[in-house]
Amino acid sequence: PVAVRREDYAAPAWWIDTVDLTFDLDPAKTRVLNRMRMRRNTDVPVQPLRLDGDELNLARVLVNGQGASFRMEGDQLVIDALPDAFELEIFTTCCPAKNTKLMGLFVSEDTFFTQCEAEGFRRITYFLDRPDVMASYQVMLRANRSAYPVLLSNGNLVEQGDLPEGRHYAKWVDPFKKPSYLFALVAGKLVAREQRIKARNGKEHLLQVYVRSGDLDKTEHAMNSLIHSIAWDEARFGLPLDLDRFMIVATSDFNMGAMENKGLNIFNTKYVLANQATATDADYSNIESVVGHEYFHNWSGDRVTCRDWFQLSLKEGLTVFRDQEFSQDLCADASARAVKRIEDVRVLRTSQFPEDAGPMAHPVRPDSYIEISNFYTVTIYEKGAEVVRMMQTLVGRKGFARGITLYFERHDGHAVTCDDFAQAIADANPESELAALLPQFKRWYSQAGTPRVATQGHYDAVARTYTLNFTQSCAPTPGQSIKEPFVIPVTLGLLAQDGQELTLHLAGDEDADAVRSHTLVLTQQHESVTFNGIDSEPVPSILRGFSAPVRLDFEYTDAQLLTLLANDPDPFNRWEAGQRLALRSAISLITSGADVVGTTTLNDAFVDAMRGVLRNPTLDSAFKELVLTLPSETYIAEQLEVVDPQRVHAVREAMRAQLATALFSDWEWAYEQNQDTGAYNPDPLSAGRRALAGLALVNLCLAARASGDSVWPGKTLQRFKDAGNMTDRFNALNALVSSGHALAQQALARFHAIFKNEALVIDKWFSLQAGSPDRGGNVLALVKQLMKHPDFSLKNPNRARSVIFSYCSANPGAFHRADAAGYVWWSDRVIELDAINPQVAARLARALDRWSKLAEPYRSAAREAIARIAARPDLSKDTQEVVTRALA
Ligand code: HT7
Ligand code: ZN
């Protein structure tokens, strides 16, 4: 397969003004009549018309009503001699029932759905399937009335009625021009929760959440999330809902989380359905942010879209930033906002940092791709959001809102680039540091890799100054050996040794207002800042709020970290201090070569500090839960040059066991203190209490395992049975399973029996087992057995993920086996999945991205397993791209 390169972008040779689609829907053979009004783009040299297609059966091509001569070049339909403007009619058929790739038109549980981003529309009809071709659509849907009573597409329903032979039709017109990737249709037996809302300007809108009939009682939270999203976008950015009708439809077969088709969002059921019996607090929170995310795309993505797929982060990075801000703004207080920020950073550091250091590393605006679906990555999404966040830091919150307004004024209705976005934010803030540094700032778009900021502090007791010296660097990434310095906003403060926050007096800026937090903007490889009037060596709190997506190196002493952990007014750095202490202990034992068993990993000061946090009356439970959760194995592994995954696992387990036992009575206290009172509410405060109670239960069961005590496992089983909501129930089940207690088996059996008809809950059941600790080396056997369970299906992405990904990507202690059996099994699953659904297979293929860091024998075995996949002659280009890069 050939790579598509950003520098080869050329405007389309033809425009499509209108698209008139007629669908005769049938699972085995759907007929699609596509009538387009087209005209030549006179700005580019004369070229033939080349339309994209994929797995279509072509029946007829008419130009201005006459049979036209055309040829096929690969998958493209090419027409040579054409007038400057004409009507093109194309008649094709496709087979939705056999579409296991879930791209284009497919059937899920007897309902038709579409997924067109990025290149799925070409699986429905021949088209200029690129985001810069924007057209007006009208759509006629025809189908059997009793099998498909609901017929939906983008925009407004303008006509509907009966047809002969039990069929009916619906005609939809979208008032907005759009690229083909935003096209959608849905047809099936669905029911809707409906709500009419009035916007600030008095305009009425109809909101609908469509699901299968048994799921209506699980739609209230999604509807409320949508209503909150609409209000938030209008209040924060002045962006109103521009449609009479806004629909969300849920499907259980979906490659990703959701899709922002104009006015007709299609969602994975996982991000719609929730009631307290079936969904956890995490599910509620994810639904809120995904509903928000897709709704916010209505402006950032739909009204202003991407010129080409290299600009994907233009809409995705910005929209993730917007959904993160939305979720933070819904929080009742600063503590809950900080918790949300820590959670977001944790995702970035455990997923995106490894990506940026591995074979798939790419800039936020990539330079080339083989399969665009492989570039829906944490770099495009999460790092892209951090880039937008840094812009906001550099221009201020109000300045950023001004920039957003200018961006939408300038580019409404157009397909634009990341440069256009950055320019609009800078132009709206001409006096800002962003405007002054724009070309350099944009290196965040063009350079891959995570910058490292090495920092040293120097205290001068005579001059009473404290100087911080910064050195930034960035390791080479594939195709980019040299990196130029980035613009890095570093927010910092200073604490006295007694933990008091100091007022900052910057040397050379004596007129500045006295502040306690300052954002220094690094632009050079070496830079320093000096603070005056410092009476004794301070403790620096650097990169507050994680003000830039970088790795910060600072040789903190344990005492300094304990001071930050106990006192830093910046909650992010307070949490970070605890993580650094834990990481330090983990790494020193991992690299020492000492026996893990019998070694006390964590020192008394750390354990006491953790007790202090747990018992602290002024801290929220959610924050305590984050502080008391040790850094993940993946994160620990990332800090090492050479990784022995079994040793990392053993050390982390030993640390967990030590915290469980040493804090036993504190965990008991925390569990009792965080019991629910009153009705279930998924708000951050209550969810935080449940999260801490859940962590306490895990620790109590772990400690019981060590002591042989059966009281807490018994209480946990009782909690599992009595729980009034899924969060408490699942936390109890998890405590039994993760501590490997014998009671886990009966709890698992009971859980399955209660929820056998709830697919999303059964996903949790599979996932918990596939992710369970490998005490006797038997998880691989268990996973093989789970795949034979009657509820298992490889064709359903959620189910495949719940077993295979939970084992291969989320259970390193079980997956990385010295006998290589985990890797061999993984390679078989990638190959098997690739024939069904290449997108899902390619994601799974990334489980061994970091193979080259592994110690022997893992390293050679992992390479061999990847090579085994790469050797298959019939691989999709999705999977081929991933494994080829891994082996390069
Ligand atoms: N913009 C949506 C992307 C998406 C997608 C991409 C490839 C294959 C399937 C897909 N489903 C959805 C999701 C989003 O970011 O909102
Ligand atoms: Zn998105």
UniProtKB/TrEMBL annotation:
Ranges for domain Aminopeptidase N-like N-terminal: 99-182
Catalytic activity: Release of an N-terminal amino acid, Xaa-|-Yaa- from a peptide, amide or arylamide. Xaa is preferably Ala, but may be most amino acids including Pro (slow action). When a terminal hydrophobic residue is followed by a prolyl residue, the two may be released as an intact Xaa-Pro dipeptide
Domain of life according to the entry: Bacteria
Enzyme Commission number: 3.4.11.2
Residue span, Peptidase M1 alanyl aminopeptidase Ig-like fold domain: 449-554
Cofactor: Zn(2+)
GO molecular function annotation: alanyl aminopeptidase activity
Record keywords, A-Z: Aminopeptidase, Hydrolase, Metal-binding, Metalloprotease, Protease, Zinc
Limits of the Peptidase M1 membrane alanine aminopeptidase domain: 222-433
Hydrolase found in the keyword field: yes
Record-annotated Peptidase M1 alanyl aminopeptidase C-terminal domain positions: 558-888
Principal EC category: hydrolase
InterPro entries with a match to the protein in the record: Aminopeptidase_N-like_N (IPR045357), Aminopeptidase_N-like_N_sf (IPR042097), PepN_Ig-like_sf (IPR038438), Peptidase_M1 (IPR001930), Peptidase_M1_dom (IPR014782), Peptidase_M1_pepN (IPR012779), Peptidase_M1_pepN_C (IPR024601), Peptidase_M1_pepN_C_sf (IPR037144)
Family membership noted in the UniProt record: Belongs to the peptidase M1 family.
NCBIfam families: pepN_proteo
Protein name in UniProt: Aminopeptidase N
Gene it is expressed from: pepN
